[in-house]
């Protein structure tokens, strides 16, 4: 019989969401880090900016998430020195898949959403798919049905192939993210209860971080927080 000491993983909870549009990508993640019924911190970001065109949001075991993010950041830096350019999002998607599959026998306990102009969703051992939207983490089972109902992404099996981007405008996507997090917060103790936004822009499309945080402890953007 397996003992508790044999299990080396711990699920620290949290939820990540991404929605891709024609000229934007909204990536959202809560900031609560928990173990069981204990809250370790309320202002920990699960979003890692890997490159100019690539952002990774991860939920799961925090130790493995940190190791994975450091590994990918180091590989991206090597790529930058060797090729004199930053890695694209599809290239980073393949690198992340290879990295997770390489560790499949002792996997990173991390469930990832990669985005910035496009969205890639993963399982723990590297299988991935480009989609118009995705959710990972403890609140994903509550959020995905709402996204499916509102966005109705086309099946990848349809012929001819259809674009995976969602038809929503940027402001509509942000409002939808706020709504799904409000819903998940009422039912998932590991997802925090309010959000604030910090916009970033690049040459070809706009990208927005959405941080669900407690307004009393928000160190990112106190003025533009919304109480849910």
Automatic annotation (TrEMBL):
S-adenosyl-L-methionine as UniProt keyword: no
Annotated InterPro entries: Ntn_hydrolases_N (IPR029055), Proteasome_bsu_CS (IPR016050), Proteasome_sua/b (IPR001353), Proteasome_suB-type (IPR023333)
KW Cytoplasm (keyword) present: yes
GO cellular component terms attached to this protein's record: cytoplasm; nucleus; proteasome core complex
Keyword terms, alphabetized: Cytoplasm, Nucleus, Proteasome
Gene3D superfamilies assigned to the protein according to its UniProt record, in alphabetical order: Glutamine Phosphoribosylpyrophosphate, subunit 1, domain 1
Role: Component of the proteasome, a multicatalytic proteinase complex which is characterized by its ability to cleave peptides with Arg, Phe, Tyr, Leu, and Glu adjacent to the leaving group at neutral or slightly basic pH. The proteasome has an ATP-dependent proteolytic activity.
Family, as annotated: Belongs to the peptidase T1B family.
Record's protein name: Proteasome subunit beta
Organism annotation: Zea mays
